[in-house]
Design brief:
The chain is built from twelve helices and nine strands. It is α/β, with parallel strands linked by helices and about 300 residues long. The structure holds phosphoric acid mono(formamide)ester and norvaline. The site of norvaline has 9 residues, from α6. It is found in: Cytoplasm.
Length: about 300
């Protein structure tokens, strides 16, 4: 079953094909109204369930619009409103949904929910973010980097801040797409050792650099994310802010990256915390292209899952 559960669980050539297809599909519909159908309708007759157990703006809207552009239909479901949120097992939910829909996207908390859903579904399942990873986001980020600067292979990506779910997917992407990666954040918020090992085993360089200035020096791409993720308890906010304050991406820090470096943030952002507005709205920033590219990257991911 061609699920899209994580970047490191997906074939390198399939990932490359998805990025290339996303780019081609994006340029084929350039300038058209958002609601206009694509020339080809690879999801005609297909029904897609979009399940959210956490809030979302980009994931929700981009999947919905993407399915419609490709001729399919969607239903957006809140986990709380489903029996899933009231004691029905994940396995039974997967079996039932598979009788109604052709594809399931889920945003959830614990990764085990995603994995169990995929185990029991007879239709493909897409990971729309868990506490542990966010692969659709990084596919959009790769697309965005390559649109602006060409192949990401061999480039140097520096992450500043929390070693969170989004960074984990960056580590997976480093392994698959062949770029070097530097993490700069406090020890207490280090990324998962297993994921660092996975990237190193693939032959890419993973550097842990506590000094953000040294970490950003010569970077081709600087990335950050919120200091408090949706799965983090609000009670940890003050501690997290104290730990992460020194890793803010501001103009002074960006000045250490390569002159043509890009800045990315998956959004939503807390302006003035993990990054300043001067950087987010500045010349290096491609944050809104990144957001747009969720749409195009996910259209290719859905076609991969459905084999269309
Ligand atoms: N970047 C991202 O996944 O945004 P949403 O939480 O709005 O979906
Ligand atoms: N790390 C963030 C990403 C949001 C898209 C979170 O999990 O809340």
């Amino acid at each position: 079953m061609p699920h899209f559960l994580d970047i490191h669980k997906t074939d390198t050539s399939a990932l490359r094909d998805m990025i290339d297809q996303a780019r081609a599909m994006k340029s084929a519909r350039a300038g058209r109204p958002k609601g206009a159908p694509d020339d080809t309708q690879p999801l005609a007759g297909q029904m897609v369930a979009l399940i959210f157990e956490k809030p979302s703006t980009r994931t929700r809207v981009s999947f919905d619009v993407g399915v419609r552009q490709m001729g399919g239909q969607t239903m957006v479901l809140s986990g709380n409103d489903m029996q899933l949120g009231h004691g029905e097992t994940i396995a039974d939910t997967a079996r039932v949904l598979s009788r109604y829909v052709d594809l399931i996207m889920i945003r959830t908390f614990d990764e085990s929910v995603l994995l169990e859903l995929a185990d029991h579904a007879t239709v493909p399942v897409i990971n729309g973010l868990t506490d542990r990873t966010h692969p659709c986001q990084i596919m959009a980020d790769i697309l965005t980097y390559e649109e602006h600067r060409g192949p990401i292979r061999g480039r140097r990506v520096t992450w500043c801040g929390d070693g969170n779910n989004v960074f984990s997917s960056f580590l997976h992407a480093a392994a698959r797409f062949g770029f070097d990666i530097t993490f700069s954040g406090p020890t207490a918020l280090d990324p998962e050792d297993d994921f660092i090992g996975l990237a190193r085993d693939a032959g890419v360089s993973v550097t842990i650099e506590r000094d953000p200035v040294a970490a950003v020096e010569g970077a081709d791409l600087v990335v950050t994310d919120t200091w408090v993720s949706m799965h983090d308890s609000q009670s940890t906010k003050e501690r997290r802010h104290n730990l992460l304050r020194g890793y803010q991406v501001n103009e002074a820090l960006m000045a250490h990256a390569k002159p043509d470096a890009l800045f990315m943030h998956c959004l939503p952002a807390h302006r003035g915390e993990e990054a300043t507005s001067a950087v987010m709205d500045g010349p290096h920033s491609v944050i809104f292209d990144e957001a747009e590219n969720r749409l195009h990257a996910q259209k290719a991911i859905m076609r991969y899952c459905l084999g269309t």
